[in-house]
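Worked Example 4.2. Consider the chain below.
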Amino acid sequence: MSQAQVSEITKMIHTREFKEEDAAQVISALVNVTGPNHKKIGQFMARDHPTLQESKMRVVIAFIEEMAKVSSDGRNEAAVAFAQKVMSATTDRDRAMPYI
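Applying the procedure from the previous section yields the following structure tokens:
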């Protein structure tokens, strides 16, 4: 993706009309693409600016917290079980990311 395309998406995201639900739908669309290398995506995300790393981790933690509460079936059973293990092994304080 070109820098111009990233810039255009960033402008769209920073509008007042772009809500949390929109962000969740964009993330869903991105991970729904068949064949992405999730490990590689994680590696690129981890190389980002430290403040953005922390913000991404807040989203991941919130997702884990919510996944631990949902009903599971064969499609999400592993994700729910993992989320429940993370929640059992951590405290609210462990999962709190500071704003620095």
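The chain has two domains: 1-34, 37-100. The chain has six helices and no strands. Compare this with Example 4.1 before moving on.
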